[in-house]
Specification:
Length: 120
């Protein structure tokens, strides 16, 4: 199962099981992706060790972004399946730094996956 991530080798962070890269089309400056080395499409098919290894890197990534960009908050998210918006069929966790004023009304955050339901 080759995909776009297989062509990338300039990892920002890495452990035995997973790695992190900067997103090529970032939602905000510092947008990172955390990817298992094993080719798995769906987050729910990851082993416990893969999940732990990925989230260890998410913690390291957050530290790195705090130091480099001092964001005001974060969104962490995974798209699971085409219907949810997944476009690269190799599971990845998005870490999106948020900056005050990056959108006029952030209320609802990840609820914005369905824009009409973002506010409640
Ligand atoms: P998703 O829609 O959850 O599958 O997210 C795929 C992500 O991969 C998007 O945020 C894209 O901007 C990002 N992306 C696509 N191609 C590349 C690439 N060559 N290098 C890094 N990130 C990429």
């Amino acid at each position: 199962m080759n995909n776009i991530f297989c062509e990338i080798n300039d990892y920002i962070l890495e452990n035995e099981v997973a790695y992190a890269i900067f997103d090529k089309f970032p939602v905000n400056e510092g947008h990172m992706l955390f990817i298992p080395k094993r080719h798995v499409k769906d987050f729910f098919d990851l082993t416990r060790n893969e999940r732990e290894s990925i989230f260890e890197l998410v913690d390291e990534g957050k530290k790195l972004l705090d130091e480099k960009y001092s964001p005001d908050g974060y969104n962490v998210g995974v798209n699971c399946g085409e219907v949810s918006g997944q476009t690269v069929m190799h599971v990845h966790v998005h870490l999106i730094p948020r900056y005050t004023g990056d959108t006029s009304c952030p209320k609802g955050g990840v609820r914005g996956v369905i824009p009409d339901k973002m506010k409640y």
